[in-house]
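## tool: complex_structure
## caller: assistant
## args:
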Amino acid sequence: MASPAHARTELDRALSGDVRALARLLSLVEDGSPRMREVVADLLPRTGQARIIGLTGAPGVGKSTMTGALVGAFRAAGRRVAVLAVDPTSPFTGGALLGDRIRMQEHATDEGVFIRSMASRGHLGGLAAATPQAIRVLDAAGFELVIIETVGVGQAEVAIASLADTVAVLLAPGLGDAIQAAKAGILEVADLYIVNKADKPDTQQVVRDLRNMLALGTTEPGGWKPSIITAVATRGPRDEGVAEVVTRLDAHWDWLRSSGELQRRRHARAREEITALAFAALRDRVTKSVDELAARVADGALDPFQAAEEILAEQKD
Amino acid sequence: MASPAHARTELDRALSGDVRALARLLSLVEDGSPRMREVVADLLPRTGQARIIGLTGAPGVGKSTMTGALVGAFRAAGRRVAVLAVDPTSPFTGGALLGDRIRMQEHATDEGVFIRSMASRGHLGGLAAATPQAIRVLDAAGFELVIIETVGVGQAEVAIASLADTVAVLLAPGLGDAIQAAKAGILEVADLYIVNKADKPDTQQVVRDLRNMLALGTTEPGGWKPSIITAVATRGPRDEGVAEVVTRLDAHWDWLRSSGELQRRRHARAREEITALAFAALRDRVTKSVDELAARVADGALDPFQAAEEILAEQKD
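## result:
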């Protein structure tokens, strides 16, 4: 299907640096507009260049401040940076994000920086579907780095690993985070650990806990050994450890490209995405009969495996 | 398909109180044996009577001790109880469960109690598929109560809600659990909050935090208002609050049946289960071409929506 001339113009405008057109394009993608598909198909040939960094950790570890510090460091090196702040927290705890964003307004007037908050609106599935498209938009718009910052513990952290080329987990002393991170399965997915607020007591204890837990994992020959960096991200020039974080992020990027891991991760990411899209489409198509089948299974009149087969059989008609 | 006579005999034995036959049946279900389907179909008419209670919370809150105390209280009332302890933690933290189980050995010689640990072996998806079948086995074997105890924070807690009729969340002072529970989205799914280890300082602070967070939620007219109970579960006769927990669990069960919510939850549970089974079957069938499609998407040569359509189209052939 040919795109309307209007949409093309809007796309060109967004991709050539018009911040308001870019914001509108992201809204379109975030809202799951019918035009999204067309837009994604159009910008696809211009994607694949951006480096996607996931930054995650529990509330209170200083993610937004660290993101701001990293944006500053990347900008000082002349790189264009986009930040996607994804908030999958429940309605019970919503609203914190906007306050966090305000802390990053020192970059608000810099055209080399684009910051976007995506809220889940209580629908994690929709957010998961929209985020890869938002990344494609920012990639096509020429941002060399896209930082995805997520709030929360558990699902979000593990999900981010399927979207980012590099996953950095932020911890802080005094929050019992190392243990929580282990329980949530985050330790297995991180390429880099940043112990932030390292001017606080117990920093070395967090580092030791992390080292002990990492010692249980194995690194294959030629594999990447996650490093642990202590840092104090601030809103001023007194940052500590941020330069080292940038150095290790760059080292990981070099390793990703030289080892073939980048291609492997991106294929895996595409595989997850298209499988999820296929399943979502299937779910939409079978909605009507699933309720009836479910009622029969709940009543003990139909076994669940038979019900599953009927769902798939219906699909073939 | 008719079941072999041997399998029927084994099933009858398990369902009539032979503990070793029951354990073998659960192993068969847990391992995803090809015979599982047949077994589930055979026992299905005998299911639907058991009351499923989910008990969940972060490591260290005393879940196993509370489970043991509840088993004792239910046994004192003459009820047969089964416990399914599901451990979805990562390989990094595995091994704790066995130690926990040992604490419940006071019930080891009681024929009215059956305790089974299910480990994820690093494969959460397999565990999620096996647990509903294990519940059916215990239900058909005549246990009036099935307690599902899960370890961890996040995914597991939210997943349990789709399996249990009643979800109880356990917290303890000093672990920052109320906040963590809120972030993980657990608060929305709980029917009952138990603040365990209530002889410790900060108990009232946890209760206040919980109350404040719950005050943000809304209860529909005729709906269930989750209660907060303080308790001290021990391994001896000095339990505090356990009787009140039992009273509230019973009250919730009465409400579930009188409000129609029980049927609604069980339909929703069956719906989740059969959809997941259908998706798993679909995933198996399309594995071959998905890799090729994913590579083309990763290379920017095919858009993900088109790829998803091709997966579903292949399904129709």
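## assistant note: The mean pLDDT of chain B is 80. Chain B touches chain A through 71 residues (CB under 8 Å). Handing back to user.
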